[in-house]
Design brief:
The protein is 56% helix and 13% strand. By secondary structure, the chain is α/β, with parallel strands linked by helices. It has one domain: Rossmann fold. Helix 1 crosses helix 9 and helix 5 crosses helix 8. The longest helix is centred in the last third of the chain and has 17 residues.
Length: 196
C-alpha cells in the first residue's frame, strides 16, 4: 500500500510520516519511508537551489522538476508497495497545490500525471493545521527555513488550495486529519484508517 502524508509547511508531515511508518513496522509489516523533495538526487539538488539559494524558476520549470522525481521513482514505488507499505512525506499532491498556485493549470498537471504514469497513492492523509499554528511550529524549529516556509501569506494560500483539493477529491483519495493534536494520537488515527 502507498500512503502519502500531506499538509502545509509546519503541518507536521515529516513527523507523521516517521511515526506512521514506525507504528506500521511494529505490527510486523514491511515498511519503507521516502521524503520529497529528495535533495540527494540531481533533480532534488536543483529544487534545493530554487528553495534555498534564490534560483529563479518559472512555474512550468518548477512543475517539471518536482514531477520528474515521481516519474523516475515509479519502479521504486511499485517495488516497495508490492513488498509492503511505502509511506511518503509529500508527493505529487504537493505539486498540485504549490505549482498550481504558481500558475500551472490543474488540467495540465493532471494530464501530465496520466501521460507519464505517476502512481496514485492508496491514501493521501491531509494534516489540517491552521496557518498561525503551522507558522508557530515552523519558526520554532531549529533549522534553516526556505523562502516558502518564511512566507506566511503564501502559507495561507496553500492552506486554502489544499482545502479546495481535498474537498473536490482531486486526482486521488484524500482523508482530512485534524493535525493540531498530539503527534502520537494523529499517527494512531492514520494507522487505524489504513487498517480498515
Amino acid at each position: 500500500m502507498f500512503i502519502v502524508i500531506e499538509g502545509i509547511d509546519g503541518a507536521g508531515c515529516e513527523t507523521q510520516a516517521k511515526l506512521v511508518a514506525d507504528k506500521l513496522q511494529k505490527t510486523g509489516k514491511m515498511v519503507s519511508l521516502i521524503k520529497y523533495p529528495n535533495y540527494s538526487s540531481p533533480i532534488g539538488q536543483m529544487i534545493k537551489k530554487f528553495l534555498y539559494e534564490n534560483e529563479v524558476l518559472t512555474a512550468q520549470e518548477q512543475f517539471l522538476l518536482y514531477s520528474l522525481q515521481f516519474v523516475f521513482d515509479t519502479q521504486f514505488i511499485k517495488k516497495e508497495t508490492e513488498k509492503g507499505f511505502l509511506v511518503a512525506d509529500r508527493y505529487f499532491t504537493s505539486t498540485l497545490c504549490y505549482q498550481i498556485l504558481e500558475g500551472v493549470e490543474e488540467k495540465t498537471a493532471l494530464r501530465f500525471a496520466a501521460d507519464f504514469g505517476i502512481i496514485k497513492p492508496d491514501f493521501v492523509f491531509y494534516l489540517d493545521v491552521a496557518p498561525p499554528v503551522a507558522a508557530k511550529r515552523k519558526f520554532g524549529e531549529n533549522k534553516i527555513l526556505n523562502f516558502r516556509e518564511k512566507d506566511f501569506q503564501f502559507m495561507e494560500k496553500t492552506y486554502a488550495k489544499y482545502n479546495d483539493l481535498v474537498k473536490r477529491g482531486v486526482w486521488t483519495k484524500w482523508e482530512r486529519i485534524n493535525g493540531e493534536r498530539e503527534p502520537d494520537v494523529i499517527a494512531e488515527e492514520i494507522v487505524n484508517k489504513i487498517k480498515t
